[in-house]
Amino acid sequence: MPYPQSTNSLNQSKLSNLQTLVLVYILLLCINPLSQIKIMGIVTTECEQVCAVAPARLYKAMAFDFNNVMPKAIPNFVKSAEIIGDGGPGSIKKLVLVNGYVNQKVDVVDEENYVYHYTVDEGSVLSDLLEKVCYEYKLVASLDGGGCIIKSTVKYYTKDDTQLSEEFLKDNKEKSAAFTKAVVDYLLANPNYN
Question: Transmembrane segments in this chain: where (predicted)?
């Protein structure tokens, strides 16, 4: 059945191009069936930690002074750290670890609301199971006014349809909490850091 004549801007040339694209898509599906197309899964975990450091101070250490604080806070894990860019969205934070490396791409920096997001999509910490991991942090002042609540969401993007075990998720949640605690402990031990 021929296509009806269109009164809008869609002309025969555009229809012909559309038909060609549809045909190419169908051919690609025959060459590369859907069973071979990678489908990524997402697993999300959430955590809250209470700490005795004011949100502005902790936020500065996590978001802006990362390259100085991390090697001091976790020297048995982080050899060095550097920031490529101005520290804002799009910047890369590179950690050289004792056993490898990791690159963090800064996604969101909202100093006013103490929100900080980054994505790890390169490095030795990504196992064969993961395509990338997205970390989202929000610091909320505690009611006593001295400390804060660290709210974190971690999104694991798995390769293909890989399933992550409860043990894997628990282990990674504990590691993330331990890293945050190490930064908090460093700040508490160094009251002149501002």
Answer: 15-34
State the number of CA atoms in the 13 A half-sphere of 112 facing the CB.
Answer: 0
Between the alpha carbon of residue 105 and those of residues 41, 60, 194, the distances in Å are 20, 17, 24
What's 79's domain CATH number? 3.30.530.20
Asked if the structure places residue 171 within a domain, the reply is: yes
Report pTM. Answer: 0.76
**Side chain identity at 118, as an amino acid letter?**
Y
Model pLDDT for residues 16-62, shown as the tens digit of each residue? 555 554 444 444 444 444 433 444 689 999 999 999 999 999 999 99
User: Measuring CA to CA, which residue among 96, 72, 100 is closest to residue 82?
Assistant: 96
DSSP 98-153: TTEEEEEEEEEEETTTTEEEEEEEEETTS-TTEEEEEEEEEEEE-TTSS-EEEEEE
Count of C-beta atoms within a 10 Å radius of residue 124: 10
Q: Which residue range is the domain that position 54 belongs to?
A: 38-189
